[in-house]
Amino acid sequence: MFRLLVSMIFLTACNDYLEETPDNRVDLNNLQKASQLLTNAYADAGYTFTEWMGDLVTYTVGTTKRPEHNQAYQWEEVIGIDQDTPTNFWNSTYQAIAHANEVLAVVDQLPGDEARRRAVKAEALLTRAYGHFMLVNLFAKHYDPETATSDLGVPFVAEPETEFLKEYRRNYVETVYNRIEEDMLAGLELVNDAFYANSGKYHFTKNAALAFASRYYLFKGDAENCIKYSSQMLGNSPDGFVKDIAALLQERVNTEDYVRLYTSPDDQSNLLLIRQVTNFHVSIAYWPDFELYSSLFQSNPFGAEDIRASREYPLYVRGENGVGAAKFEFLFERSSLTSNVGLNYTIVLAFRGEEVILNRAESYVRQNRLEEAIADLQVLARKRYGNDVVLDLATLQNYYSPITSDPQIAVLIYVLDERAKEFFHEGLRWFDIKRYEFTVRHLLEDGSTITLQSDDNRKVLQIPKAAQDVGGLEPNPR
Predict the structure, then answer these.
(1) Which of 277, 275, 284, 4 is nearest to 139 (CA)?
(2) 20 to 30 A from 110, CA-CA: which of 231, 274, 282, 298?
C-alpha cells in the first residue's frame, strides 16, 4: 500500500484537519449545508500551465518568466506548489474531491426533499468524477485499451479523510476510468437543472454533465458513446451552442467588456464556469510571437479572415513580441478589506458547446462518417469564417494535400486545427498532443531548440514530490 494525498503535504496541520469538518464551518446535517459545501468541490486551480508545455508558444522577448514557467517550457519537473503549477493542481483537485466525498458519505441520510437530495448527490458524483478525470489525464498516460490495465493512474479516492496518514495507492488507468464512468453516469441520471436555474452555470447542469461525458468518451476512444452523449446535448440546433464572437465584438465597449460577454453565463455556448485562482491571464510568460499567432489564426482552407470576424481579436501584446488572445477577465481578491495584497483570479470556461461539436465531429471521423463530421464542422465554420463559407470534402482534401491524400485524415487534421484555434490559451491543446503523440519543439533564448518527442515520458506530469516522499507513491518514469 502506498500513502498519499493532500492532507499529508502539510503534516503539522493534518491532525487538526482531520478533527474538523472539511470547510471548518458547518456540520452536514441538512441538504442546504451539503449543497453549500459542494461549492468547494470545484478545484480553484487550473491546468493552463500546460499551455507553456505545448506547441502554441515560443520564446518571447521582454515577458516575465518565473522559474515554474521556464521549467514547464523546457519539460522539466516543476518545483514548487504555487498557483499555476502541477502540484497546486493536484492539491486543489484532491481537496475538491474530499468535499464531494464528505457530501456523498451522508447525503442519503440527510432529511429533506427527495428531489433536492438527488440533485445534491448528482453534483457530488459529477464533481468527484471530473476531478479524478482531469488528474488521471495529466498525471498518467493517455488511455490506451491495450495498456490501460497496467499503466499506473492516480489514486481514486471515494471516502472522506478520517485518519492521519491514510494509505492510498495508484490505481491503474482503466480502474480510474471505470470509477469515473460509474460516478459520471450516476450523476447524469440524477442531475436536475431546476435546482440550478439561477446559479449562473457555476454548477454541473445537465448540459455540462453531457459535455463532460462527450469529453470522457472521446479521450477513451469510444466514438459511439461520444456521439451519443454529444447528440443528447446538442439536440437539433447545434449552432446555438457556438459563441457568436463577431456579435460580441460589435457589442463591446472595450476589451474588458468583451471578455465579460465572452465568459457570461448568459451565453448559451458556456456550459460550466469555474472561478480559478491564477496568474496565467496576468503574465503568460511564454506566448506565441506575431508569426506563430498569425500562422495559427490566418491559415484556413477558405482563404477567409477568421481573425477580423472572430477569434484573434481583441488581443494583448506583452514584451516586445508576445501576443495573446483576450479570454480572461482580470479579477483580484484582496486578502482583507484594507489590504493591497491578495490573489489574482478569473472565470474559466470548463466546458463549452464548441468542444462538444468538435468532439462529435472527431468521433464521426473515427467511424469514417465524413459527411456527418463535415456537417458539424460547417456549423462552426460559418460562425468563425462567415455565413457564406461552404465546407466540403474537396476543399479539405485540396488544402491538406501537401500532408495527406487520405480524406479521413484530412478531415481529422481540420478538426484538430480548429480545436487548437477555438481553445487557444485554455489548456486543451495539451491533451491532443498526448492523444495523437505530437512532437513539440521550443525555441530557447540563445536560438537553439529543444524537442519533446512523440513518445516522450515527460508528457505525463510527474507525481508531486510530497506525494512520493511522504505518501510513497511511485513516480512516473523519466
Answers:
(1) 4
(2) 274
Counted residue by residue, the chain has a size of 478
Please state the separation of Cα 128 from the chain's center in Å.
15
Q: Average of pLDDT values for 366-370?
A: 98
What would the pLDDT profile of 369-417 be if each residue is shown by its tens digit?
999 999 999 999 999 998 889 999 999 999 999 999 999 999 999 999 9
Query: What's the whole-model pTM score?
Result: 0.92
Distance CA(477)–CA(224), nearest Å, equals 33
CA dihedral sign of residues 115, 117, 121, 127: positive
Sign of CA dihedral 180, 182, 186, 189: positive
Q: How many CB atoms lie within 10 A of CB 94?
A: 24
Q: What's the domain count of the chain?
A: 1
Q: Cell 516586445 maps to which residue? A: 320
Domain membership flag for residue 309: no
Q: Which residues contact 114 (CB under 8 A, 6 or more apart)?
A: none
Rounded-to-10 torsion of CA 470, 465, 457, 137 = 80
Supply the CATH number for residue 136's domain.
1.25.40.890
Q: Would residue 335 count as lying in a domain?
A: no
Q: How far apart are CA 191 and CA 208, in angstroms?
A: 10
- CA angle (8 as vertex; 7, 14 as ends), nearest 5: 60
Residue by residue, DSSP assigns 453-466 as: -TT-GGGSPPPPHH
163-169, long-range: CB < 8 A, 24+ apart: 163/18, 164/14, 164/15, 164/18, 165/3, 165/8, 165/14, 166/3, 166/5, 167/1, 167/2, 167/3, 168/1, 168/2, 168/3, 168/4, 168/5, 168/471, 168/473, 169/1, 169/2, 169/473
d(CA 434, CA 454) in angstroms, rounded, equals 8
Q: Please give the residue range of the domain that contains residue 105.
A: 1-41+85-197+437-478
Instruction: Provide the 3-class DSSP secondary structure of residue 449.
Output: strand
Cis peptide bond prior to 464, omega within 30° of 0 = no
Q: Tell me how crowded residue 150 is: count the other CB atoms within 10 A of its CB.
A: 10
